UniProtKB/TrEMBL annotation:
Compartment list: Cell membrane
Encoding gene per record: ypdA
Membrane-spanning segments: 12-30, 79-103, 115-135, 162-185, 214-233, 277-296
InterPro entries on file: MetI-like, MetI-like_sf, UgpAE/MalFG_permease
Species classification: Bacteria, Bacillati, Bacillota, Bacilli, Lactobacillales
Protein name (Swiss-Prot/TrEMBL): Binding--dependent transport system inner membrane component family protein
Source organism (scientific name): Carnobacterium maltaromaticum LMA28
Presence of the UniProt keyword Repeat in the record: no
Amino acid sequence: MWKDFMKNKAFLLMALPGAIWLVLFFYIPVLGNVVAFKDFQYSDGGFFKSLSQSPWVGFENFKFLFSSSNAYLITRNTVLYNVGFILINLLFAIVFAVILSEIRSKKMIKVYQTSMLLPYFISWVIISYFVYAFLSPDKGLLNAIITGNGGEAINWYNEPRFWPFILLFLGVWKGIGYNSIIYFASIMGIDPTYYEAAMVDGATKWQQIKNVTIPQLVPLITILSILAVGNIFKADFGLFYQIPRNSGALYEVTSVLDTYIYNGLTSSGDIGMASAAGLYQSVVGCILVVGANLFVRRFDEESALF
């Protein structure tokens, strides 16, 4: 044991900051989940004194999610949007990764990768202003084009029917660079002798992609899909809150679990309710990850996450 530690001490020291960060910001805060079962009221004595003095209420805080008349709506929106993101991101990420792998100019690959990755690092707040420049009812670019061609201006922020497509497009656009780079790195790690053997057999480029590239990507696709399924009850708060500008007229298609919790917290100030919602998301996510992994493990043990 000690010999192995000394042999790998350089790597362990490199991993130490990340391990400390996980303990401080992930494992220790888990103890705070007890707030979900209390009528938490913050007092001058600090968090721990407030926690000890707050009365237990059991599962009362969870009723906020399940007894609401909007429970079905927010659950439907959250799940369907995430399913759409998983499927569309998977398709476009693989397509773009394959395209990048066929580019022979290293300089152009860097240009394309940087261009695709840039949106990933832009805040949703900034993106919301760009979107508003296009969709503004009176000065937006799209309305200017529509009215310039004899059409009638659209009040985009009061028309729910357009927003599922807008949100899906923006979500995929922002994440496509990051997702494609992961698959691109995996493609670059495929043994080139597979492609050489395929070319000797007379395989076309499409046949090489279909019979060599895609099968080699299956383990990575499976692992990333399992992790994505674990987040199916979580939504990107910035996307669903900032982009529609929290317009009440759009709640039918933009209200998801995270924005619903936030709006409830800002109106009631009930920290216990927000903690219950976060705990609910985490527990459901854990169950989904374990279930998806067991399903994959049943058909292909090597592609399972654990």
